[in-house]
Design a protein that fits this description.
The chain is 30% helix and 20% strand. It is α/β, with parallel strands linked by helices. It has two domains: 376 residues, TIM Barrel (Alpha-Beta Barrel), CATH 3.20.20.140; 107 residues, no CATH class. The strands form six sheets. Strands 1, 2, 3, 4, 5, 18, 21 and 22 form an eight-stranded mixed β-sheet that branches. It has a six-stranded parallel β-sheet with strand order 9-10-11-12-13-17, with helices on both faces. The protein is globular.
Amino acid sequence: MFDLIIRNAEVADGLGNPLRHADLAVKDGRIAAIGRDLGQARETFDASGLVLAPGVIDVHTHYDAQLTWDSTASPSPALGVTTVVIGNCGFGIAPATPETRDTLLKNLSEVEAMSLEALRAGVDWQFDDFSSYLDFLSSRGVYPNVASFCSHSALRTVVMGDAGSERESTAEELARMSAMFDDAMKAGAIGLGSSTFENHNGYGGIPVPSRLASDDEFRALARVVARHGHGVTMATCGERSPIAFLEELAALSGRPVIYCPLLDYPTRPGHAPGISAACADARSRGRAVYAQASCQPLNMNFTLLNAYMLQTISPWPTHGDEARHRALFSDPAFRAAFKLSLATPVEGGRIFNGTWHLMEVTLSPSQSSLEGRTIEEIARERGVDPVDALLDIGLADDLQTTFIVRLLNVDEKRVGDLIADDGNLISLSDAGAHLTLFCDAGYAMHLLGRWVRELGRFSLPHAIRKLTSDPAQVYGILDRGRIEVGAWADLMLFDPKTIHVGKARRVDDLPAGASRLVRSAPGLHGVWVNGTQVFDGKDYVKVKPPGKVLRKFSSERTTLGMGETLNAGS
């Protein structure tokens, strides 16, 4: 007697092999049999006409805080995701001490555009070090499986306090950080999450702590990874972190190093292909350096009070009340200074560079005739600079205008070339972060709907492999991302003729009444984690949270796209 049989499915194994018509049986959370006439089960599900695939492994999320109050990690499981990796970019909340908790939350609120009030009201601080954080998540329960990076910025904050965002570490401080990271790896960290990205600023506009780490600090932490024989280093990289340095870290650690974000910049068309090629060169020398790419356009909703993409352009305010913003935006000197900054070329990944034809008014309380029109178009009609048009529109609406800007990954031909490269992992959802600006948690549904069905750029088996077994192999996630006997029964069931990601909608369900954007996945009929259904196609299923906090990882890795298996010491 099996626990579950899903009958009459078109089974995609997650390894890229052709689909086959079969039944699948589950026992004790694992796949027990695949074939026909498998016998009886306590629960059966008819999947006629539907594709049964491994659940999506989302390796770039920011659910670190949310999971302390929301076991479901909404909206990811409702978008096909069965395993999430948290702690990305080094923005975790563990380790933490009572005196550093609020600093961690304030920096997280700024760099990941989260409501500080929601974080303060929602985070349940029943932990201090990394091990007790994982213990807490496990005891509280999680719907998806969860693997966590140890946060580089949290390490620096706990050891160095405010100085973590001001200077390099001393030898004694680095020794303490290395010891704490070593303890985290022993406790079950999947590796180190960090950032050197120039756009990553914390509360009040100060750099996030990891940006002040020296190259020697990164080398020391890579040596900690090497001692454990498993693990991944991921870094959101700025100009100071070339692929050659990531290759050095891969050599020191003997483990994969992940570059992100790999995105197509409209004003720098050669940038992303150059990064991708440099990663491939590193892999050709036996160093497992990969990049995380997105299959979606990066669209951002914003008002002038939370214009995240403009905050790295001086003198745009990073925080302050509405009165301060109104005064600044009305000031001719502020406008002149901002125009000058925007017109000045910069090195690095500034995500908005004056592409006004890609910015639109989506909702204007007092100027509905402007809705759906670009800032470039409105400025030309009014005979003013686009900066003046943007600010005038917002001020006329008492700063309540909603805009949308298509920032990156706009050219589908160039994006398609990036995500087709097997050395580039498809992810970058940022799920759990930037909650009022966008929701990209449904990237897998977009891949299946847009890139497979509509554009035909990928076969269905290939696309599913990119979403499942590829990230599992690189990150060392055991027995997941594939459908085979003995693997954990992390599954999604969908209609390939209708699957897609829905439009973003706003809900007010965060702690302290804060709002966020969520999306749905029409065509997704069910999601199972460790054999237990967590999403039924309409809503979450009320069950004891079936996910596992993952603490053990493979010491082997596969260099994707090269047909070569490398062990941990390579």
